[in-house]
């Protein structure tokens, strides 16, 4: 069975076609985002009468475009990191019955360690895989909070569409993390409102990300590249790996920078 999975997922034809679809989907998503941004700046420039003011607004617009694109990348990286460790959690829970005695005792601790490790992995991806230079720490924090909502959506989808009750505990765990991000021991109204503002600003990214990953996963399951037999959560993680590769390839072409400069 293991040999079957290896041959299936490393078949050049399967890998090539799925990567192409992931890349095309990414290009379509970013093209839509940049088109909306272009329409917004054109409307704003009409309101400006001085040429100097127009140049300043264009520079601000370019920076904002970079921030939106990099926020989307950060959301993909964060989602991948969390899904990696959730996949490991799933494998240990479902495929390693020989350690069940220890697993039942320490699984909550292991899950906490996995979540912490996912944060470090995300930080590594947004520096080594694609260096994100236009996002400040506060913006990254807001995007990573959105990624928790994104993971909850994935788990809810698996829970109700596939009627898999094994994820009930994980859903509750991530919802608790989300609430804790808003209401911690020494929170203030100001900090709560700032966190809420960051969430609202990035909600469109959550919608776009859900549509993009939903399409990639649907295609993967539809053509038989992603397999339900090895776990939906694991297949979803594999889809995100291809999304990461698409971001890396598109970044290396530097096409996006030229497009943003032209807008």
Question: DSSP strand (E) fraction?
Answer: under 5%
Number of helices: 9
**N to C succession of SSEs:** HHHHHHHHH
Distance between the termini: 51 Å
* Helix content, binned percent: over 70%
The major β-sheet equals: none
Transmembrane segments: 15-37, 72-91, 111-129, 141-158, 170-187, 199-221, 233-251
Keywords: Coiled coil, Membrane, Transmembrane, Transmembrane helix
Coiled coil: 38-65
Describe this entry's structure for a reader.
The protein has one domain. The chain is built from 9 helices and no strands. The protein has helices spanning 2-9, 12-47, 51-95, 100-129, 137-161, 168-182, 189-223, 232-253, 255-262. Helix 2 runs antiparallel to helix 3 (51-95), helix 2 (12-47) packs across helix 7 and helix 5 (137-161) packs antiparallel against helix 6. The mean pLDDT is 87.
Throw out a few tags for this protein.
globular, coiled coil, transmembrane, membrane, transmembrane helix, mainly alpha
Report a brief summary of the structure.
Keywords: Coiled coil, Membrane, Transmembrane, Transmembrane helix. Helices cover 85% and strands 0% of the residues.
Task: Chart the SSEs and their pairings.
Layout: H1 2-9, H2 12-47, H3 51-95, H4 100-129, H5 137-161, H6 168-182, H7 189-223, H8 232-253, H9 255-262
Helix pairs in contact: 2-3, 2-7, 2-8, 3-4, 3-5, 3-7, 3-8, 5-6, 5-7, 7-8
